[in-house]
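Researcher: Can you fold this with pyridoxal-5'-phosphate in place?
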Amino acid sequence: MPEKFKSQRAPIYADIPDEKWNSWRWQLSHRLNTLEEIEKVLHLTDSEREALATQDLFRVDITPYFISLINPDDPNDPIRKQVIPTAAEMVPFTAMMEDSLAEDKHSPVPGLVHRYPDRALMLVTTQCATYCRYCTRSRIVGDPSATFSRDEFEMQIEYLKQTPQIRDVLLSGGDPLVLAPKILERILKALREIPHIEIIRIGSRVPVFMPMRIDNDLTTMLEKYHPLWINIHVNHPNEITAELDEATDKLAKAGIPLGNQSVLLAGVNDCPHIQRDLVQKLVRIKTRPYYLYQCDLVEGAGHFRTPVAKGIEIIEGLRGHTSGYAVPQFIIDAPGGGGKIPVQPNYMVSSSDHKVILRNYEGYMTTYEEPEEYKSHDSKNCAYCQSKRPEMGQTGLTGLLDGEKMFIKPEGFDLLHNRGGIQHRLRDDAKWQPRGIGSGDIEDNN
Ligand SMILES: *Cc1c(COP(=O)(O)O)cnc(C)c1O
C-alpha cells in the first residue's frame, strides 16, 4: 500500500471535540476572516498584515480545516498563498480586467453564461467555503448582495428550457456545495425536469476546503440526479489529505466521475515536479486531472501569473513521464470571452504528403506513413450524421472543414477592403462564390 495521506489540525483546534470538527456547519460558522483571528494560527508577514487591514479587499474567509494545512512558520507555504491576502493583490497590471472572460457579456440572463453551443454555465450562488485570492469571478463572488435572486433563478431555468441545444449544464458560482441542501436539490430537480439536459456537472472546491460536507445525506441526494459529474479544484499536493481522500471516495462510490481543475500559480505550483506529484496523488484519490488553467487577467491576481511557457514546460514534464490519465489539458481561457483554448508542446515536427514526423517525450523521432488511398466518410450523405443535433451557428473551423463555408472574416472585413470604392464592372460578387461550398447563397459564406 502507498503511504497514507495525512490529517492535520492547527494547535488552537486541539481541544475541539471531533463531532464539532467533523461538522461542516461548525467549520462554516468558525471560518477565520480577521487579522486577529488569523494571527492566532499563523505568524503574519507585514504584507499580509497590510492587506488584512485594508478596506474593500476581496473577501477573506478560511475554514479551520483548511488553515490547519498551512505551515504557520513558512511565509511561502503554497496553501497560505492561495487564501491569505498580501499587499501584492492591490497592485494593478497591464491588461487587468474586472471580468476578464467577459462572462457577464455572454449571459443572456443574470448568472447564466452561454458561450458554447451545447452547454451552459449556471452561477447558483456567490458564496464559497473559503475564498481563493486569484478568483476569476471576484467581481461578484464573496458579495452576498450580488447573489442570485429567486426571480433570476427562474429566468435561468426558463432560458435553459427554451434552449434545446443545451445538453450539459455546469453548476458553479461561488460554490454550489455551500448552498443549503434543500436549495441545491431544488436546482438539480428543476434541471432534471428539462428533457434535453443530458448531463449535470458541479464545479466545487468544498471537498478541498471542507471535506466533511461530503456526507452520506449529500451523496444520497446527488445520486438521484445522475448522470452527474463533479470537478474539484486542487492546486498543490499538500491539499490532498486523508479527509479529502475520504470525501472523493464517497463521491466515487456514489457513481460520480471526478475531475480536477487547477490554476497555474506562481510560487504555488509552477513547477513540473510539484505538478507531477499533484497529478499522481489526484489519480490515487480517484480524481482525473482535467484542466490546468493559465491564471486569468483578473484584478488581484497579477502576482500569481506565470509566463505561458511555464504551462508548456509542465505538460512536457507530464506527458509520457506519467500515466496518461494523470495529464490535464493546459488551457488559456481567452481574455474577452473566446472560451477555453488548449495549448501544448509540439509533438508533430514535420510532414510531407503521406508522411508525418513526430517526436515523443524522450526526443525519439519517428515517421508515420499515411495511407495513399483514403476515402473519407461522406457525412453529407449519411443519415446518421444528418440526424444529429445542429450546432446552431457556432460551427467555427469545423464549418470550414465540412465545406459549410470557405472563410471566417474579421468584423468589418468586406467593408474595409471595399476601400470606399464604387461598385464597378469588375466587382461581381458571384466571382467569390466558392463552387460546391455552402448553400450557394453568398451571405451564408461570410
Ligand atoms: C468552462 C466553461 C464551460 C465548460 O467547458 P468544458 O470545456 O466543456 O469543460 C462551459 N461554459 C463556460 C462559460 C465555461 O467557462
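Model: Folded with pyridoxal-5'-phosphate in place. The chain has 16 helices and twelve strands.
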